Amino acid sequence: MKTYFRLLSFAKPIEKFAIPYIIATLLSIVFGTLNLTLLIPLFETLMPAEPGKTKTISDTAESLFDVTGQLRDFVMSSKINNGASQTLTYVCLLIVGSVLLSNIFRYLSQRYMEDLRVHTLLNLRKTVFNNVMDLQVGFFNNERKGDIISKVASDVQVVQFTVTNTLQVVFKEPLTLIVYVLVLLSISIKLTLFSLLVIPISAFIISKIVKRIKRQAKEAHESFAKMIGFLDEALGGIKIIKAFNSTERTKDKFHKENIVYSNLNRKMVRRQQLGSPVSEFLGVLMVAIIVWYGGNLIISNQPDALSTSQFIGYIAIFSQVMRPAKALTDSFSGIHSGIAAGERVLDLIDTKPAMTNKPGATTLDQFEQELTFENVSFNYNDKQILKDISLSVKKGTTVALVGPSGGGKSTLMDLIPRFHDPKTGALKIDGFDYKDLTVESIRAKMGIVNQESILFNDTIFNNIAFGKPDATEEEVIVAAKIANAHEFITSSEEGYQTFVGDRGNKLSGGQRQRICIARAVLANPPIMLLDEATSALDTESEKLVQEALNNLMQNRTSIIIAHRLSTIQHADVIVVIDKGEVIEMGSHTELMSENGLYRRLINMQAFND
């Protein structure tokens, strides 16, 4: 229940929807019950007086709450004063009016509940997505993307439907049940007490049936998340799958997980569906017993027997008692699936970002002097990646990071925009410790161009203006020209309004990279971080991109990771990193004279070229 009430908190302000829903539902139940109760005066009007059961106008209802008695009195009085035909007209008009009002209020109650359902989904999905976006980059290295997508899309949908549907059932159905029982008691206390035995019996049987649904539902949600993740990987790597003739193997892998999910879903739904026919059978069985028992009383002319019209009305009302009882059992079985999905969603919501702005963190207004690493070490879990790194990057200088693959260059680069925090040591900018500054103000001073060209399925214009949404067309064009991108953009079918496709797949690698550079140029940050920005390009594209990078680095502080060492020989400082440690540091000329690792890397590359 704790999980359920926490999920329900996302419906706040719930009173905005709950109060009108309660009023509309109450009126809907009252008029809905009246619809069935009006069957008694209808039959009283149509049927001749029964032998031994003749009533007169003096036979009045015992109290104001004796609804059936009041209606019977109305019919008898009207038949005496107005005749049976006129009375039938009154009763029919009363039935039509009652049905109309019950349906109007039922529609309003459903409308308010749907508003609540949509409101809950909106808040829940917003909270989940906001929290995902706030999580540190390292979180996504350890989580399956498909699992996150499944929680944000599918699980949230299950939660909002189950929670609000259960809320609706828990309020409406017990209230409907109480009203029905009160009306039945007003007709016959003896029959009603006897008939209500079916409800606890039904509840006990249903609870046994649905006992295992929650565990099966959790397994089904996890299996669905695996399928979504696999689908995402298959679509992203479709070229590799086809290039290695792995289409059939990929289909088989997906099909196996699909079978697992389908089997779990089948078992769960079977249990859910079993509750409905069981409760319905028990209800029909009870109605049959009541018909047999009450009918025999009428046939034998027992003194405490109901009239035929009362008995028919009683059976009609009692047959509806099982509808709210059945809805309650269905809701009880369905809520397990919602709670299982809710626990997965709440688990994602409860995941706290590893890096948050500490209370009182200050904003970095300008980058004036230098960026420094002071004895920085970093671990991925138990594996040490960086060891005691000390480095200073002066404003306006270009620093290149080189070394063998896996040496820690990219990890060092990721520390600069504070994607991670060091295990020990400190990063400082203009003398301010990173942890004393807001993350947003640090990243606002930096532009990043990665080895992988990350574009969004939008226009070229919007991709360039991503870091500066209010940029003018002139500003975007200037940035594109600096990035050597203006020429190919204008030759595109729709120019700057051309859509780049999913992940930019409508463009070549060099074109994508130049748009990424234009995006960084437009943001105009004082510090540029270039992580092997030309490594995946052909020679012609590399030349164009390198020219764009040279333009980008003018009058800026730049930190570069480069696979072609010839492109960073102009750097002010070259830092050689191997196995997480700084091995060498200096200019190209100084490092060549030392005859160390850098010179060996230069010679190896020259030999390979």
From TrEMBL:
Ranges in coiled-coil conformation: none
Transmembrane segments: 21-43, 88-108, 177-206
GO MF term set: ABC-type oligopeptide transporter activity; ATP binding; ATP hydrolysis activity
Source organism of the structure: Pedobacter insulae
Keywords: ATP-binding, Membrane, Nucleotide-binding, Transmembrane, Transmembrane helix
InterPro entries, alphabetized: AAA+_ATPase, ABC1_TM_dom, ABC1_TM_sf, ABC_transporter-like_ATP-bd, ABC_transporter-like_CS, P-loop_NTPase, Type_1_exporter
CDD domains per UniProt: ABC_6TM_MsbA_like, ABCC_MsbA
Keyword Zinc-finger assigned: no
Annotated membrane topology: Multi-pass membrane protein
GO cellular component, one term: plasma membrane
Domain ABC transmembrane type-1 per the UniProt entry, residue ranges: 22-337
PANTHER family membership: ATP-BINDING CASSETTE SUB-FAMILY B MEMBER 10, MITOCHONDRIAL, ATP-DEPENDENT PERMEASE MDL1, MITOCHONDRIAL
Domain of life the protein comes from: Bacteria
Keyword field contains Transmembrane: yes
Protein name: ATP-binding cassette, subfamily B, MsbA
Primary localization class, coarse: membrane
Lineage of origin: Bacteria, Pseudomonadati, Bacteroidota, Sphingobacteriia, Sphingobacteriales
Subcellular location per the Swiss-Prot or TrEMBL entry: Cell membrane
Residue ranges occupied by any ABC transporter domain in the UniProt entry: 371-604
